[in-house]
Amino acid sequence: GAVVSQHPSRVICKSGTSVKIECRSLDFQATTMFWYRQFPKQSLMLMATSNEGSKATYEQGVEKDKFLINHASLTLSTLTVTSAHPEDSSFYICSPRRVDTQYFGPGTRLTVL
Amino acid sequence: GQNIDQPTEMTATEGAIVQINCTYQTSGFNGLFWYQQHAGEAPTFLSYNVLDGLEEKGRFSSFLSRSKGYSYLLLKELQMKDSASYLCAVSPRTGGGNKLTFGTGTQLKVEL
After folding, report:
1. What tens-digit pLDDT sequence spans chain B (112 residues)?
2. Which three-class secondary structure string do you get for chain A?
3. Which residues in chain B are closer than 8 Å to A91, comparing Cβ atoms?
């Protein structure tokens, strides 16, 4: 299967700070990147879709100014959680699309104190 | 809208066979995926069905009936490491960049 890396794997931050999560597709080019969030014992909820070189499309209820997505190249996308609050604590997963298959990064566990 | 249903939990015995069902109602259909997710980890791809029928891949098989909006994942010769959540996801329409809609997942527990 395809190799996708995500960094950091875990992060703990104070309320009000910003956290950047990087996602890289190591052995293929991803024209489309999906970002998901998963709360404990719940399914994956799509946050936004981004295509390389263009602005991300956010799902209803997801604040674009709070969750900044940059998809600068075909192998790198970043998600920045700005002014994080405890309710943003979750498991964030990137998902690059390759032809008809979506692969997933290993996820980032964010804990906001 | 999109609606995907799976059982919440299942329990099976090591060495046995288990079938996890998924029913869906979506606006458009361009394929159904099955993923395995261990606790605290990201999902890993298991299978993709776009045509009716059974796709076999080692111990895992996946079946699709588009007319019935129904799929199942069949796991044979169960092993303890198969204890995980199994996610059914539907791709709603053709074209690049289309979004997957996930079911809530079926938590499978394999016992001795």
Report:
1. 678 999 999 999 999 999 999 999 987 888 899 999 998 888 888 999 999 999 998 999 999 999 999 999 999 999 999 999 999 999 876 544 467 888 989 999 999 9
2. CCCEEEECCEEEECCCCCEEEEEEECCCCCCEEEEEEECCCCCCEEEEEEECCCCCEECCCCCCCCEEEEEEECCEEEEEECCCCHHHCEEEEEEEEECCEECCCCCEEEEEC
3. 40
What backbone phi and psi angles, to 5 degrees, belong to B16?
-85, -175
A17 in contact with B at a CB cutoff of 8 Å? no
Total length of chain B: 112
Chain A residues with CB-CB distance to B99 below 8 A: 34, 46, 49
> Which of A32, A43, A100 lies closest to B102 in CB terms?
A43
Of A74, A94, A100, A101, which to mutate for an interface test with B (greatest number of B Cβ within 10 Å)? Answer: A100
Q: Residue B28 corresponds to which tokens in the numbers above?
A: 């458009």
- A106 touching B, CB under 8 A? yes
